[in-house]
Specification:
Blueprint: E1 9-11, E2 14-16, H1 23-43, H2 51-57, H3 65-73, H4 77-95, H5 101-107, H6 113-124, H7 128-132, H8 137-152, E3 166-171, E4 174-182, H9 187-201, H10 203-209, E5 212-215, E6 228-234, E7 246-250, E8 253-262, H11 269-277, E9 284-286, E10 292-297, E11 307-317
Antiparallel strand pairs: 1-2, 3-8, 4-6, 4-7, 5-6, 5-10, 8-11, 9-11, 10-11
Length: 318
C-alpha cells in the first residue's frame, strides 16, 4: 500500500510525508500546474517554445514532465502545442481576412504555407482556403468549435496506484562509472546494454554491484537515434576503470524509491506507474536531479525473464 509520511520527521533516515493533505488535494496542485503550462502555451503559441521553458513556467522539473502533462492534459506537450497553434490560426483565418495564409502559417511556427495547409487539413478536415471563403463562415466556425469541444471532452483519468510500495529516503551522493549508448529506448536495447557492460567488467562484478541506468532524453522530443542512456556501476576503490568508461557524479538527493518485479519485459511500465499513478498524489514534485534505475536482479537471456528494479526518483515537497 502507499506509504504515509509526516512533515519534517525522520525515522531511520526516512523523511516522512505530510498526512494533512489528502491525495486528491495533492493531485489538484498538479492539475493547477498543468493548467498553468497549458495557459503558457496558449499565450505564447506564436513563439518558439521548448519543453524546458514550458516545464519551468509550471514549476515542474523537465524530467518526466511529458509523462505528467499527458496524464493530465490527455495529449503530449507537442500534440497540445500543435493543436493550439492550429486552432488559433483557424480563428485568424476566420476573423482576419486581411492577413495572408502564408503570414499566418509562418507566424505560428510552420515551415511553409504548404506544411501548414497539410496539417491544418488533417486536423480540421478542410483547407485554410475553405475558412477564407465568406460563404463557408458558418461551417468554419462549427469546425473550430468542434475541435475545441473534442479536446475538452477527453475525460482523462489518472487513478492513484495505491498498491505501490514507495519509500522516501535520502540517497547519498555517488559516482557512476558508465558506458554511454545512443539509440532509441527499448527493453531489448537495455538487455543488449547489460550484455555489453557484462563483457567489459564481468558478470560476477555486475551481479555483485548492481548496474545503474540513466535515461537523459525524452523520446517524445529527442529523435530516437539520438537518445542517450548511460549504464554502469557505482564507483568503488577496487574498480579499475576501463578506457572506454566515463565517470559522472550524482549529488545527495531526497528520493522516492520504488522497488518492483517485472516478468513481462516491459521496463517502461514501472516508470509510468510511479510518475503518473503515484507522484501526483504524493505531496512531492520532481527536484530536477536525474532519476536512475538500479537493476537488482536481471536475466541476460531475455527481457521477459524475472527482473527486479529499483527506481530512484529525486523529489522535493510541494
Amino acid at each position: 500500500m502507499l506509504v504515509n509520511f509526516i512533515t519534517a520527521k525522520f525515522e531511520n533516515n526516512v523523511l516522512l510525508m505530510p498526512d494533512q493533505l489528502k491525495p486528491d488535494t495533492r493531485c489538484k496542485e498538479y492539475q493547477r500546474r498543468i493548467n498553468q503550462a497549458m495557459n503558457y502555451i496558449s499565450e505564447h503559441a506564436t513563439e518558439s517554445l521548448s519543453l524546458d521553458d514550458i516545464a519551468q513556467k509550471a514549476y515542474f522539473s523537465k524530467y518526466h514532465f511529458h509523462r505528467i502533462f499527458k496524464a493530465f492534459a490527455g495529449e503530449t506537450v507537442a500534440g497540445f502545442t500543435r493543436r493550439i497553434r492550429l486552432e488559433q490560426a483557424a480563428n485568424l483565418l476566420y476573423l482576419d481576412k486581411a492577413q495572408s495564409i502564408t503570414k499566418i502559417a509562418l507566424d505560428y511556427g510552420f515551415s511553409s504555407a504548404q506544411n501548414f495547409t497539410k496539417q491544418f487539413t488533417k486536423h480540421f478536415g478542410e483547407s485554410p482556403s475553405f475558412f477564407r471563403q465568406d460563404n463557408n463562415s458558418g461551417a468554419s466556425l462549427a469546425l473550430i468549435q468542434q475541435s475545441s469541444a473534442s479536446s475538452n471532452a477527453k475525460g482523462v483519468t489518472h487513478p492513484m496506484h495505491e498498491d505501490l510500495e514507495v519509500v522516501i529516503k535520502t540517497q547519498p551522493a555517488f559516482q557512476l562509472a558508465y558506458m554511454r549508448f545512443i539509440e532509441p529506448y527499448q527493453s531489448m536495447s537495455t538487455l543488449t546494454y547489460l550484455k555489453t557492460l557484462s563483457d567489459n567488467i564481468g558478470i560476477e562484478r555486475l551481479k555483485r554491484t548492481n548496474p545503474v541506468g540513466v535515461a537523459w532524453d525524452n523520446p517524445n522530443i529527442t529523435e530516437g537515434a539520438k537518445c542517450r542512456y548511460d549504464l554502469g556501476i557505482t564507483l568503488s576503490g577496487d574498480f579499475d576503470i576501463p578506457g572506454n568508461f566515463s565517470v559522472q557524479e550524482f549529488p545527495e538527493s531526497l528520493c522516492a524509491v520504488y522497488r518492483c518485479t517485472i516478468t513481462d519485459g516491459d521496463l517502461e511500465k514501472p516508470w509510468d506507474d510511479l510518475v503518473i499513478g503515484w507522484l501526483p498524489y504524493s505531496g512531492y514534485v520532481l527536484s530536477g536531479v536525474p532519476a536512475v534505475e538500479v537493476f537488482k536482479q536481471f536475466d541476460l537471456q531475455t527481457p521477459s525473464g524475472h527482473w527486479q528494479l529499483e527506481i530512484y526518483l529525486p523529489v522535493k515537497p510541494i
